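Researcher: Can you fold this with magnesium ion in place?
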Amino acid sequence: MEETVSKNFIEREIEKDLEEGVYNEVVTRFPPEPNGYLHIGHAKSILLNYGLAKKYDGTFHMRFDDTNPTKEKTEFVDSIKEDIQWLGADWGENLFFASDYFDKMYESAVTLIKKGKAYVSDLDADEIREYRGTLEEPGKKDPYSDRSVEENLKLFEEMKDGVYEDGSKVLRAKIDMSSPNINMRDPIIYRVAHLTHHNTGDKWCIYPMYDFAHPIEDAIEGVTHSICTLEFEDHRPLYDWVVREVGFERPPRQIEFAKLYLTNVVTGKRYIKKLVDEKKVDGWDDPRLVSIAALRRRGYTPESIAKFVELCGVSKANSSTDIGMLEYCIREDLKMKAPRVMAVLDPVKLVIDNYPSDDIEMLPAPNNMENPDLGTRQIPFGKELYINRDDFMIDPPKKYYRLYPGNEVRLMNAYFVTCTSYETDDNGDVTVIHCTYDPASKGGNSPDGRKVKGTIHWVCAKDNFKATVRLYENLVDEEKGVYDDNGNVNINPNSLTVLKDCYIEPSVKDAKAYDRFQFVRQGYFVVDYKDFEADEIVFNRIVSMKSSFKLPK
Ligand code: ATP
Ligand code: MG
């Protein structure tokens, strides 16, 4: 078999299982709890599971792990589906809801009771915690653990029938109160909770606990490789116990990998939710977040996220990745795809005093110097232009090659111009820059071999359109770290800059939501799908051009 890329440890395990006939197919799944939006960490899990199913000609299941009605909402179910589809993980027919298995889970609990492996306890939550012991101390026997099978069956049925109040009774698995693994100390497997469920409505007033429900869900669906993150390693013996005792023929095999973390970035549904609820950000898709919805709105492509996940690799050791790597991936993805256009975000007027006409002329320009397939366009040029304020200095330092009095620069795709003078307002701020141009340098080519060191971009003052542009920095104040002493995020006060009077070349005027461009010298931008400022297009900066990030060798 030809193999150029080395396999990750999960692939090696799967291949071993297939060779040894432990399984003769591969079934994976992504099992989110619909209690928030997905984030970049979930993207890793989705693409990993989907990729494995594809690689081994297997099946990928999308399953909502919706067994806890307190935090789950249909809004989240919808957003999760949208995000996974966008990432390109196609579940086909295989869309499942754990809540559809409530009957089977109930039966499984009854099976355990009948085998003497589960009992109803009247201890309350505090007592259960106290009886459970600690890492150093074994747990104590639950005084209700000797109830007869008949009594347990009757009580459990009454729990289901709504006879008991929330919290007054639980069903516990009877395993081992002195196990060194606390998860095995007679874990609660069912609780009473009079709650309306988003899928099953008021049918149930008892709900299974995650550790009981989860392995049963995988087993019902015939999942072969149940891939999850490291924090579930200690739960594996319990999962194996459940599926064995309930009597599933071919239990799934769990393999754990390390979560994806980004340095100085808020990942974790709970923390993102807190920012959203406290209105510190503009909803789950605020482009400063790393929820998948936010990355999409920010202008990231599914391809760039897939590349990032691939570069991160799969490992057993926790580590934290520089967000620069994600930015690298979107730059690489857009480099050849995005048209390169001119936009002036902080405009100052440039007047060409010797330009002979008040009319405009059209000049050809390539849409992407590195990708001729994107073709060319015509851009308007005239006597009055806008340039970026920082492309001019009255009194420049050494090695400043852009415009200053007496200096000649190239206007990109247009002409050479030499600065002759400038005007200022009462504050000394520059209002107009004057220059002369060399008609012989049309197209930005030197007419006589003389060189200019600087090339600046521009937009025609007579023919352009105005837009709002949003620039982003990290949401987190990196100097202070992610969280303060109270667990609140240290927000970078400069994380969002809104520029209102930006001039963009007219070729972009009809841009639609999610269209992406390189604004030359300034970065990659996307048309925001949601906001329009007084009918003006709003562009989000996806990423700037420059980066200090180096791809690890
Ligand atoms: P969070 O920790 O952000 O609250 P979660 O683990 O509670 O996420 P679930 O909906 O339970 O979210 O997760 C669905 C799947 O995504 C699980 O298999 C989980 O292990 C995986 N997952 C969650 N966060 C990450 C991450 N940072 N990196 C890789 N996989 C992740
Ligand atoms: Mg969770």
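Model: Folded with magnesium ion in place. The chain has a mean pLDDT of 95.
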